[in-house]
Amino acid sequence: MSRKSILGASFALLIASASFMAGPAAAATDAAAVVNHYAALAHAKYEDSLKTAKALDAAIDALIATPSDETLKAARAAWIKARVPYQQSEVYRFGNAVVDDWEGKVNAWPLDEGLIDYVDASYGTESDENALFVANVIANPKLKINGKDVDATNLTPEFLSETLHEAGEIEANVATGYHAIEFLLWGQDLNGTGPGAGNRAYTDFDTKNCTNGHCDRRAAYLKAASTLLLSDLEEMVTAWAPEGEATKTVTADPKAGISAILTGMGSLSYGELAGERMKLGVLLHDPEEEHDCFSDNTHASHLNDAVGIASAYTGEYTRADGTKMTGPSLSELVAAKDTALDAEMKAKLTKTLDAMNAMAKRAETVEAYDQMIGEGNAEGNATVQAAIDGLIDQTKTIERVIASLDLGTIELEGSDSLDNPNAVFQ
Amino acid sequence: MSRITARIPRHLLLATALSFAALGTALADDPVRRTDLTPKDLKRVEKVTSPTTDLSKPEPFELMQGGAATSTHPVNGDAFSHFSANITFSEEEEFKLGNALFRKFWVSSPSSTQASDGLGPLFNARACQSCHLKDGRGHPPEGAADATSMFLRLARPARTDEERQAVAELAAVNFPDPTYGGQLQDLAVPGIAAEGRMKITYTEETVTLAGGETISLRKPTYAIADLAYGPLDPETTLSPRIANPMVGMGLIQAITDADILARADPQDRDGDGISGRAARARDHRTGELKLGRFGWKAQNASVRDQSSSAFKGDLGISTPDDPHPFGDCTQAQEKCLSMPTGVQGRLGDTEAPDPVLDLVTFYSENLALPARRNIDDPTVLKGKSIFYASGCVACHTPKYVTSRKAENKAHRFQLIWPHSDFLLHDMGEGLADGQQVGDAGGQEWRTAPLWGIGLTEEVNGHTFFLHDGRARNLTEAILWHGGEAQAARETFAGLAPDDRKALIAFLESL
Question: Most distant CA pair in chain A: distance in Å?
Fold first, then answer.
């Protein structure tokens, strides 16, 4: 991994997050304008995700055409860059079904990498539940999935998404998305909670001087996964265009739209990020419980999630090209009702970002995220815990915001008729 | 089936020393009434849960079959994996941590990830999810050797008066095979042998339905190949079990005992040929007798008990509720008992110390029911009326309102539609496994809840039903019903083909 590029990327974020809270004190803002701007930011974030994924795709082309240390490093750097806008978009996942139901294709994790390529002997050779645990599709053009013979001669995007992804109903059979590409660019991280990321050699893609066999198929897999990522991201760019399905859904009822924003912030803050992605790792001290485990980019991944959460509230976003976007924000909407509550929300989002930045800085200067969560590493554990605490604490204020805006349980009101088809007895 | 409202005092029901006979008599003579409701709410509940008389249109609230917990996510392969729609952000965290643990692969000891080891020594699966694929229904090993989402329970009957007394008091639910224990583990950690392989042979039998349609039913016979530790006890019976779908379990737990006991009629006093019996189960932690409602034989009273049993038997992982680290190893399997365990003193005194079981339990209690589909489709409505008229509802009780006092707020006072009475019924010789489990005899099974059944194919890519997946579709599943359900089965077989199709369409809408 190129430490330099990570440093560059997250210093920029540090600056971005510091300036976040200096938003303009706007006049009265209405919910419809807030939701419209929220959709516009989504569009920008997915556009940036697509743009950076295209750069990644070009770097992958270069790696395949001329495998070398340099082209491999460039592809890894492009992957890390591509993660920045994508992770900042993740706050849209919760609260917007259209995103949540699509997300598994691009960001599913954790994955049983033995499905895709060769793995170290320490990975094991069998898994009761997953017959494809070490299927190694790159080495094996013929597979059996659920007892049926499958022809994997052509590693096309369609084959990856329709046949291989979640094969045998096993969620860990992740064949597509950022993490599949990450595994192909870095390889397994065999360092446990010791220092170091995955260390794949460029010769794994060099058909003339091939290491670990099947370099042509490895290259084909990588290209197919990259192509698929582009088409999947294009789908989201379309969905969040002004007339797109996601935009129409979230803007149809501004009050429900505001509810979606807050659901997204709360669900990502607490259950998803603080809980599943961070607390579990600290609980188990397990280096496998690391989101971007091959690249050791987990710290940036978590930080950018937090940046996205703040962005959903402030309405501010710094695009991949550096352009700043601002507009009618939830923050203004809350301030109009309760300035103290708005100040509290902003302060807590900032506190989380500070803790996340400290964690990211530690990752860049002291030890990687998977080392921080190692057993007995009190300081590392505490650094991660501070970010977790910030996320949980900010969710409490998100709940207060929900209460203050009187969004309540609008969709759960009992009704004696089927006029409201989602009615439940109360 | 008795329609009398039950009125037994709660403390009597829960009294640990109560024998089955005493419980049974008490039920019939002095039934229980719900204590969690005001008189006004009780009236509302009685009204909303009384069987509908207007089958021409959907009932109010019917779409949201899991009440406010119902998931309205688009229907796809993840349909069983969403959390209750009405939980809080902090509960979402518990759910997600539970989900991660549910997916987690446990590894054999010793390993570098000490918090994750302790698997086995004998086991059926390395992760919960291995059997509960996509949180849905397991399947028999069709064609392939993979039998992960299904296993064989092993038990022999009581032999002495003392043993019979132990079962009557539920000090034991039955007696494990002296060598192989309570279930056959077809996997083992390196260094010891797996116990053997389940072998299934099917014989086809043809059934002719009204209108001339013929259906072939496959009758399974079970055996074990490659027994690694010598012969089974001659009296040991094999009971195949498929992993049940995970949805709605917290809501089932929130149904009041009174509502379930009210439908029990062990002596068939109303003479309808259906004598549902309440199963009792010991709470694993307190030893109290409670109403059993989970598992194919209603052998567990709570989701937590069902979960700790699975940790022990299926994964070989000890929990604070069941702290034995050797899983299902028996005294006869000496090497198994000498294997390293995954207990790390500094992490806790079990392989899965707190809060693992708490989190997995919470997760298991909060997998949401998907909303129903096509409830106003005329064929579905016709099927629903046939479901009522054919006597299916005598056991597949459509709806309940859960307790106001349920532990989790999200489960309180919800109108839910599980379509089960959660009682034990004699299902006839055809389905019998000949294995007693506590109060459940060798021909008895708990009425399976039907909610979510129509999404089996969407979620799991198959339609294998019943405790061992012998039925290849819903029609076969109905035709396997015997015993107390024989009459309803005959009614179904005698329906005009279009009416049978309508009934299936109704089931598929659940």
Answer: 72
CB within 8 Å: B68 and A424:
yes
User: In the block, which residue shows the tokens 């993740």?
Assistant: A90
Among B359, B243, B340, which Cα is nearest to B294's? B243
Tell me the two tokens of residue B332.
Answer: 């006869």
B237 phi and psi angles, rounded to 5 deg: -105, 155
DSSP string computed for B324-389: -TTTT--TT-HHHHTSPP---TTT-SSSS-TTHHHHHHHHHH-BPPBPPS-TT-HHHHHHHHHHHH
Return d(Cα B382, Cα B378) in angstroms, integer: 6
Residue B181's SS3 state is strand
What DSSP string describes B130-146? HHSGGGS------SSS-
Q: How far is B250 from chain A (nearest CA, A)?
A: 17
Exposed, middle or buried: residue A203 (CB in 10 Å: 0-12, 13-18, 19+)?
Answer: middle
Query: ∠ CA B172-B178-B179 to the nearest 5 degrees?
Result: 135
- Which residue from A minimizes the CA distance to B47? A425
pTM of the entire predicted model: 0.86
- The answer to whether A97 and B73 are in contact (CB under 8 A) is yes
| Closest-CA distance of chain A to residue B355, Å | 9
Residue B113 pLDDT > 80: no
Q: Are A159 and A165 in contact (CB under 8 A)?
A: no
Residue in chain B closest to A388 (alpha carbons) equals B93
- A289 and chain B in contact, CB less than 8 A: yes
Compute how many other C-beta atoms are within 10 angstroms of the C-beta atom of residue A408.
Answer: 11
Q: Please tell me which of the candidates A128, A272, A425 has its beta carbon nearest to residue B401.
A: A425
Residues of B with Cβ-Cβ distance to A100 under 8 angstroms: 73
A-B CB pairs within 8 A amount to 143
Backbone phi, then psi, for A78, in 5-degree steps?
-65, -35
ipTM for the assembly: 0.77
Within the 360-389 window of chain A, which residues sit less than 8 Å (CB to CB) from chain B?
375
Q: How far is it, in rounded angstroms, from Cα A198 to Cα B330?
A: 43
pLDDT tens, residue by residue, B155-179: 999 999 999 999 999 999 999 999 9
Higher pLDDT, A109 or A346: A346
A260 CA: distance to closest CA in chain B (Å):
13
Percent of chain B with pLDDT over 70: 92
Chain B residue with the nearest C-alpha to that of A421: B63
pLDDT in tens, B65-99: 999 999 988 888 899 999 999 999 999 999 999 99
- CB within 8 Å: A275 and B68: no
Q: What CA–CA distances, in Å, run from B231 to B177, B337, B428?
A: 10, 19, 29
Distance, C-alpha A131 to centroid of its chain: 27
CA–CA gap between residue A184 and residue A154 (Å, rounded):
17
**CA-to-CA distance for A185 and A391, rounded, in angstroms?**
31
> Is A129's CB within 8 Å of B129's CB?
yes
B 362-401 → A contacts, CB under 8 A:
371, 401
Q: What are the chain A neighbours of B458 within 8 Å (beta carbons)?
A: none
Q: Which of B93, B100, B148 sits opposite A274 (nearest CB)?
A: B93
For residue B208, list its beta bridge partners: B214
Three-state DSSP string of A25-42: CCCCCCHHHHHHHHHHHH
Would strands B444-446 and B289-292 be described as parallel, antiparallel, or unpaired? unpaired
> Token match 């329906």: residue?
B495
Nearest-angstrom CA–CA distance, A257 and A44: 18
Pairing of strands B424-426, B150-155: unpaired
Q: Which of A120, A424, A426 to mutate to test the interface with B (most CBs of B within 10 A)?
A: A424
Q: CB-based contact (8 Å) between B50 and chain A?
A: no
